[in-house]
From TrEMBL:
Ranges for domain MobA-like NTP transferase: 10-173
Family matches, as SUPFAM superfamilies: Nucleotide-diphospho-sugar transferases
Superkingdom of the organism of origin: Bacteria
Protein name: Nucleotidyltransferase family protein
Signal peptide limits: none
InterPro entries cross-referenced by the UniProt entry: MobA-like_NTP_Trfase, Nucleotide-diphossugar_trans
Length: 199
């Protein structure tokens, strides 16, 4: 791994309150004998991210107390109820000044995405101008990688639950798609029925 690749930071968005899950924060859901936030942070680490920032929101104090997140930087998003865009902004703000050249963003509620998909997207990093997205049968999904030159524009465009979608659509010609459908499943855990995906 080159020095530049070492500067790809993992950014885990784990602030949601699980409104459609009866108000159970997704970070605290059990999966494979641990909390979903622990699982997702380890996926970023195992996928080659040199550092991992975790954005917390709903019941952040409980997540801090219960979750084992060694060597992770925990970022509080007091505005988490206003949507994922606020968590993305909080995470990018926290990365500013760290020396990171890119943020590799993973959502806590997608446990079907593992280290192999993260590693593929991370390896596509070229420079702080990079925009990379996992793709599933050619359709853009997560994880995504944002070179630091894009952070200000992404933060400005991130509103509600759209996150970086508007920015990526506006810069579609610059986004490198990395097919991950053979190594990951991009389902979300959003509803009671989706809990069947957890193990």
């Amino acid at each position: 791994m080159t020095d530049d690749e070492n500067r790809v930071a993992g950014l885990l968005l784990a602030a949601g309150g699980g409104r459609r899950l009866g108000g159970r924060p997704k970070a605290l859901l059990p999966h494979r004998g641990r909390l979903l936030v622990e699982h997702a942070a380890e996926v970023l680490r195992a996928g080659g991210c040199a550092s991992v920032h975790v954005v917390l929101g709903a019941r952040a104090e409980e997540v801090r107390a219960r979750a084992a997140l060694p060597d992770c930087v925990l970022v509080d998003n007091p505005d988490w109820e206003h949507g994922m865009g606020t968590s993305l902004r909080a995470g990018l703000d926290a990365l500013a000044g760290t020396g990171a050249r890119a943020a590799l963003v993973l959502l806590v509620d997608q446990p079907g995405i593992g280290p192999r998909a993260v590693a593929r997207v991370r390896r596509a990093y070229g420079s702080p101008r990079s925009l990379v997205s996992a793709a599933y049968d050619g359709v853009r999904g997560h994880p995504v990688l944002f070179g630091s030159e894009h952070w200000a524009g992404i933060a400005a465009a991130a509103t509600g639950d759209r996150g970086a979608r508007a920015y990526l659509e506006e810069h579609a010609e610059a986004v490198e798609l990395v097919e991950c459908g053979d190594v990951a499943e991009a389902y979300d855990v959003d509803t009671e029925a989706d809990l069947a995906h957890l193990e």
